[in-house]
Amino acid sequence: DGGITQSPKYLFRKEGQNVTLSCEQNLNHDAMYWYRQDPGQGLRLIYYSQIVNDFQKGDIAEGYSVSREKKESFPLTVTSAQKNPTAFYLCASNKDSGNTIYFGEGSWLTVV
Amino acid sequence: AQSVTQLGSHVSVSEGALVLLRCNYSSSVPPYLFWYVQYPNQGLQLLLKYTSAATLVKGINGFEAEFKKSETSFHLTKPSAHMSDAAEYFCAVMDSSASKIIFGSGTRLSIRP
Prior knowledge:
The structure holds two protein chains of two kinds.
Chain A: E1 4-7, E2 10-13, E3 19-25, E4 31-37, E5 43-51, E6 54-57, E7 64-66, E8 76-78, E9 87-94, E10 102-103, E11 107-111
Parallel strand pairs in A: 2-11
Antiparallel strand pairs in A: 1-3, 3-8, 4-5, 4-9, 5-6, 7-8, 9-10, 9-11
Chain B: E1 3-7, E2 10-14, E3 19-26, E4 33-38, E5 44-50, E6 56-58, E7 64-68, E8 73-78, E9 87-94, E10 101-103, E11 107-112
Parallel strand pairs in B: 2-11
Antiparallel strand pairs in B: 1-3, 3-8, 4-5, 4-9, 6-7, 7-8, 9-10, 9-11
């Protein structure tokens, strides 16, 4: 089945450690996105990529990094520079600009 | 710049009652507008989208939304609420460069038995 797969679903990290969240899609979508969602709040855009080997910062990119080496993959690294990383992270994709955006099931990151 | 405002962070209705979730947008160009639903600990699912083909848009699960340019609104409605409708609902707009979608802060819908 086509879709967006995020892993892991739940992740615990010690302060000072980097962690990478995986996002893979087999929808042949060109654009991919990472959003952060805090409890009771809306979605905030971290990074997005419209084509392979190119990506742009969103509204809250500080403390995060991404890569887009393959069309189907858009991993997000939460670095130790991110001051408050505990949140729900959502990966999304769409075919091209103007089209519906589809979401993965999300990943919970907790810093302990 | 495009933006979306959802009025009311929490709406509670009785089962069988009308559901009305409010969304206002700002856009300098004809917008693409979306409503998404999120169940606990899950990603977002598309309910419906407006792309200028028709002002009244029908979506899944009996929901519909009407685009009103004069009011810059895109309110979501459902004639009769069901317990399974309890979830978080997000209104969103495609930005002017059509490179990303901007989300509202969300409205949590609760259904009373």
